[in-house]
Amino acid sequence: MSSLCKSRLQEERKQWRKDHPFGFFAKPSKSPDGSLNLMYWTAGIPGKASTIWENAVYPITITFPEDYPSKPPKIKFPAGFYHPNVYPSGTICLSILNEEEDWRPAITLKQIVLGIQELLNNPNPDSPAQEPAWRAFGKDRPTYEKKVKEQALKYSK
Amino acid sequence: MKTEPTGNGGLAGLSAIKLPTSFPLVPEAQQELSKVNLYDTQFRSMVSRYTDQLEQTASKFISNKLEMEALQLIDDPLEKVRESIQKDCKNLIDEFTSSGRKITEEELERSRYQVALTAIKAQKRINYRESAEVSLDNLDVLRDQREEISCADQLESLLSTLEVDSATFETANNRLQLLQEHLFVTLNPESELPDAEDDDVAISGGKVSLICPISKRPMKNPVKITVCGHCFERTHILEFLQQSQGSGFCPECRTLFKKQDLIDDDLMKLRLEAHNRDLLILQYREKKSSQIGKKENGT
Ligand SMILES: [Zn+2]
User: What GO terms in the biological process aspect are recorded for it (chain B) (predicted)?
Assistant: First the structure.
């Protein structure tokens, strides 16, 4: 890990502990020897109140590359997560997480998780990442909402 | 009328200009020339206004400098600090004075020529028109007069090309503005400059961030991307650029830039110094007040 990557991640952790948005959590994982692994985090994204996503916290994993923050972190929901912009593997398709699109090293962890929360209830129909959720979102809204609510129950707080 | 305007533009050219020997030819022109002094006075009042402004800025700078060194005064021998302040301020004032003098001299010289030229040209035109009836007797006189007019025209056009050199004036103004900016940020390290209307550089709510957007830590050696104005810690933006094979996008706004587009950000550096100074003063005051608190509790 480059020193820049390490110091930036330490800073992100410090800032997160000092202040983070309500209902979210994010923490670096522990290595088998008990030390912190700053390159791999687990986090939780609360669904916004008064949406079909509410009353649940959706788990994500965040993997930082060696050349972070030049390159964006890779963020995944559990495999099979139901959302038009989430690949079957769970990888999130979001422009601010794409180096070729809108990723900027200045983007903070806080901005990323807030961006993902926003994406939950505002899918981007122009970048489908999975067949079922994308098709239902476009053509069969009742089924889509039913599926999302079932998923919310699964991850309910 | 053999005299040709000499000099080929530029400041050196200005001092090389010599009025043709036939200038001034007529008493009316001489009279006009005597009015140049009147013009001088007007010009002088303008220069003195400008000088006043310089002086004010300098004195503000001095008091600010004193404030900056106040902390040092606590521990360092007074003589040493005073010496350094005096040296800094003297250099500054010397610089102001000499540039102000230079501007005055150049502008005065130019205005003198211009008034003389206008007067002489006007006079020549009148003479030429009045004696427009060509005869064998006045043929030579007329030719002379016509040549004088064209000579005056040439000189005037040369002077107008020299106007470009009022860039000197502009440079001095820019430096004054720069100094004012420097003064402002030393007093308000985290505030946006007052006139920066079209400047959206790292500003949120009128505040300027002193944090490097890449490392999210306070900057020490700030460099600026000239194309977009965003500012980063030198080593971090260079590392970023290296990872992007020499040509990258701004980590803040994704504007494309190259290594050559990076320059030291002196203003940001000054902000950082002033910010650190404020932190030190704050720490010192806290220490002081907690000492006082302890004393009060003790009694
Ligand atoms: Zn930029």
Answer: double-strand break repair via homologous recombination; protein sumoylation; protein ubiquitination
**What's chain A's length in residues?**
157
CA distance B299 to B281: 27
As a whole number of angstroms, the distance between CA B40 and CA B48 comes to 12
* CATH code of the domain in which A122 resides: 3.10.110.10
* DSSP at A78: P
Q: What does the pLDDT read at residue B203?
A: 43
**By C-alpha distance, which of B16, B3, B2 is closest to B162?**
B16
> CA–CA separation, B107 vs B111, rounded Å?
6
For chain A, the domain total comes to 1
Number of neighbouring beta carbons within 10 Å of residue A30: 11
Chain B contact probe: residue of A1, A2, A4 with most B CBs at under 10 A: A4
What span, in angstroms and rounded, lies between the C-alpha atoms of B33 and B22?
14
**Do residues A152 and A55 lie in contact, with contact meaning Cβ atoms separated by under 8 Å?**
yes
Contacts 24+ apart (CB under 8 A), A98-104: A98/A72, A99/A71, A99/A72, A102/B254, A103/A71, A103/A72, A104/B213, A104/B249, A104/B250, A104/B251, A104/B252, A104/B253, A104/B254
Whether residue A92 contacts residue A85, with contact meaning beta carbons closer than 8 Å, is answered with yes
User: What is the residue extent of each domain of chain B?
Assistant: 7-175, 196-298
What are the tokens at B88?
């800094």
C-alpha of residue A73 to centroid of ligand 1, in Å:
21
Binned at pLDDT 50, 70 and 90, residue B128 comes out as: low
Which chain A residues are within 8 Å of B217, Cβ to Cβ? Answer: 7, 11
Chain A residues touching B250 at Cβ < 8 A: 104
On whether the CB atoms of residues B149 and B157 are closer than 8 A, the answer is no
pLDDT at B260 over 50: yes
Domain that holds residue A104: 3-154
Does the pLDDT of residue B20 top 60, yes or no?
Answer: no
Q: How far apart are alpha carbons B57 and B59 in whole angstroms?
A: 5
A93 flagged as catalytic: yes
Nearest to B110 by CA among B44, B152, B74, B162: B162
Question: What CATH class has B196-298?
Answer: alpha beta
Residue A116's pLDDT is what?
Answer: 97
Report pLDDT for A69: 93
**Residue A86 carries which side chain, given as an amino acid letter?**
V
